[in-house]
Amino acid sequence: MSLNWCDYAASALTDLDYAKADPDILFAPQAMLDAGRNYERANSLEDAAHTWEALLILIQAVTSFRRHFFGQGSPATAKLSTTKLS
Fold it and tell me: The whole model's pTM is what?
């Protein structure tokens, strides 16, 4: 049995497992983005698209939650809007 260091589909599943196990907004989006990229590298473009859609839904939900509880013009919301996602 040989190891395949380029098993991108397995890597994507690991990233998604991490995002599900630790849905903290600081780490889950990056893990989901990495999963989408790994699906793309594995030529699983449909899985990549579904992963990125789920990422957008997560970000929209968090943004909506923060806007509801912190208000549109609060310092917390202003700080979030200037933070870059990598």
Answer: 0.67
